[in-house]
Specification:
Structural class of chain B: alpha/beta
Distance between the termini of chain B: 30 Å
Largest sheet of chain B: 5 strands, mixed
Number of strands of chain B: 5
Distance between the termini of chain A: 57 Å
Radius of gyration of chain A: 17 Å
Largest sheet of chain A: 5 strands, antiparallel
Oligomer: heterodimer
Number of strands of chain A: 5
Helix content of chain A: 10-25%
Order of helices and strands of chain A: EHHEEHEE
Order of helices and strands of chain B: EEHEEHEHHH
């Protein structure tokens, strides 16, 4: 029997930057309606949702496109996981989640999907007809496992073969990519 | 609505974002830092104690701010990061170049 979702919320908004606040607020409302989600689980799911929303907002409308793209988000939890599903009617996302890599520290963009893949236990994208569908799943930690600190130890560089099914807590940034960037190293 | 407080005490510019730093507000962080650098404040601290949330746009803005400070001969430090900010800094390896300090005062001492 499928566990009953608790604290479920959904919304549908134009895929524009001004909608980002409402999307973020929706996730916070889920926490207020769901007991026992640890702070660490909240922050990684929240971060992943905002990153995917930003990606949709940035890329769903073709350059010069006049048509308004609508984005919907449904978020729900059960005892084992937190799940978010985005659907939008924008152009197809040009993304291969297997090829997502964290850029070098000097980059000013390009970290969004790499963060999503690192933060979630499962990330899936599919094009179905004229819509895009993103599914994010974060497994929940035991309620009393929250120490309020940082949950990602520095130096973990494990890279699963399938990033879409990757476990959370793995640092997939290129190992050592930040080395050699001492004072002044970011200046081109 | 995210706001950016600015303090110019003792020749060091301290920028304090209040609220969420995301794709909407991140450009304002870069503008604020560039204005300070333009005024001659090349030693900068970004006080994140009141920053509720930061996304990859915000991280990009911090990198751009660091570059602006260093290109002007100065430097930039982060102070008072939250668990959410620490998490994204570590996942992106940016903690190595942005080097968070526990407090604004300790960040100032490093500049």
């Amino acid at each position: 029997m499928k566990p009953k979702a608790s604290g479920a919320r959904q919304l549908s908004v134009p895929a524009v930057p001004a909608s980002l606040g409402a999307i973020h607020d929706l996730v916070e409302q889920v926490w207020s309606g769901t007991a026992g989600v640890t702070a660490a689980d909240r922050l990684r799911f929240e971060t992943a949702v905002v990153e995917v929303a930003g990606n949709i907002i940035e890329h769903a409308t073709p350059a010069g496109g006049a048509a308004e793209v609508t984005l919907s988000l449904a978020v729900g939890t059960d005892r084992a996981s937190i799940r978010g599903v985005f659907v939008d009617d924008g152009q197809e996302a040009d993304v291969d989640l297997d090829e997502v890599r964290m850029p070098d520290p000097g980059a000013e963009a390009g970290r969004g999907l790499a963060l999503v893949v690192s933060l979630c236990d499962r990330v899936h994208y599919e094009r179905a007809g004229s819509t895009n569908r993103w599914t994010l799943v974060c497994h929940r930690s035991p309620p009393h496992s929250d120490d309020g600190g940082v949950m990602f130890p520095v130096g973990l560089t494990h890279r699963p073969t399938d990033l879409r099914q990757g476990r959370c807590g793995r640092n997939r940034a290129a190992p050592g990519s930040a080395w050699g960037l001492g004072s002044g190293g970011l200046i081109a | 609505m995210t706001t950016f407080d600015v303090d110019r005490t003792d020749g060091i510019g301290v920028v304090k974002p209040r609220g969420r730093v995301n794709m909407v507000s991140a450009p304002q962080l870069v503008r604020t830092v560039n204005e300070l650098v333009g005024e001659g404040y090349t030693r900068l601290v970004v006080d994140l104690s009141e920053t509720e949330f930061i996304d990859s746009s915000g991280l990009g803005a911090l990198v751009a701010s660091l570059k602006a400070a260093r290109q002007a001969g100065g430097d930039l430090r982060l102070a008072a990061t939250t668990p959410q900010i620490d998490t994204v800094l570590q996942l992106t390896n940016l903690h190595r170049v942005l080097q968070p300090s526990p407090t604004v005062d300790s960040a100032r001492e490093l500049l």
